Amino acid sequence: MSDNPDDFSQWESKSQISEARRRRHRQGFTLPTKGDRAALMAEVAERLTAKADYFIYSLLCAGVLIIAILSDSPAIYILAALLAPFMAPVVGLGFATVVGSPRFFLQSLTSFLISSLFVFGGGAIAGWISKLMPSPTFTQVQYHSKFTIPDFILLTIGVLLAIYITVKAPKNRSLVASVALAYELYLPIGVAGFGLTSGVTGLFPEGLELVGIYLAWLIFIGTLFLAILKIKPFTFFGYFLTAVILAGAVYVLLSNSAIGSSVKQQMNVSTPTATLTETPQPGIVVEVTPTPTLTPKPGIVFVNTETPTPTMTFIPTDAPTETITPKPTPVMARVYCSTPEVPSVNMRKSPGGEYLRLVPVGTLVEIIGEEVYNNQIWVNVRIVETGEEGWIVKSLLQTATPQGNW
Fold first, then answer.
1. CA geometry: angle 201, 155, 218, nearest 5 deg
2. Helix axes of 258-267 and 236-256: crossing angle, nearest 10 degrees
3. Dihedral angle at the C-alpha atoms of 137, 141, 146, 147, nearest 10 degrees?
4. Of 70, 320, 355, 362, most Cβ neighbours within 10 A?
5. Which one, of 51, 228, 251, 73, lies nearest residue 65 by Cα?
6. pTM for the full predicted model
7. Which domain holds residue 136?
8. pLDDT tens across 207-221, in order?
9. How far apart are CA 242 and CA 16, in angstroms?
């Protein structure tokens, strides 16, 4: 070491700067140079590239999801999410804008789509098997095809936690965050496949649309969170992808929210034109007798001139007498289930026959008839709102119109 005091002062100053940088790294995520950011993003991209085990565990998740759907067990749905692989491509989509590599973005998206096909195929297999079951009950599938605030919050927490841990320690994997992502993305994809082959309404394509919305939100919130951590895009593709995601978020807002629906409804409203139609009354014939017009002749002067007025003569005709036939009061009922966790019940094409659809609890139906099958009383009902007819077990109905034996 030089004995020059100036050299010692410079060395001490550099040491203090390096220590300050290390302290900033320990306390936050501020990366002082583009080189540091590029090095971090290269390491992140390497860790978030899907390997063979990702697709193997995706197949395992699809197999467990088949059992979950057919058994209608919430616990096995959770097991399917637990057995899902680390959602590296999904977390990679959250980093896509700051990594700034088109290849990394397409690679992450393609890997997720391939694994999604495995899960979708598992749901489709469950739908085919369900047609062979004598009395299947599917209530849990309805929970995974609709947007709910708790699911949205869980997805957001999973994304933020995965990004935080990846930035803080790229070599570590947040399995808790991965389970949250698998639960919110894989399960809707699986039930969409089930809806396609089973014919259960409200699952396909609703489940796939929900996943599309979740992916757009995932990339958007990931970009925003990384900007808060002072990690911003530093390539043209990164900024371009950010702009595309923002535009996509606006489109999703307008096409799926209540605001968008209201705007569309206002734009499509047409002003109805009232048309007056003259309807003849049955049993009355109106005969118009014109009054003859007086034509003046030369030499004759008419002092009082009256305007000719048509004379209306009512001629009675034999009108058919309408016979009023009394009709029985329709018996109405509502779909009912004593278990609060069950939101809907099965309706079949015949007593104990082929599965038709799920009818939500509280739906108003009209009672048509009933029949005993396999020691159970089945009721033929017609859904008031849609007019669909089917058979439901009598114990799952509560009558709104008083009737004996109910």
1. 100
2. 70
3. 130
4. 355
5. 73
6. 0.61
7. 31-260
8. 999 999 999 899 889
9. 37
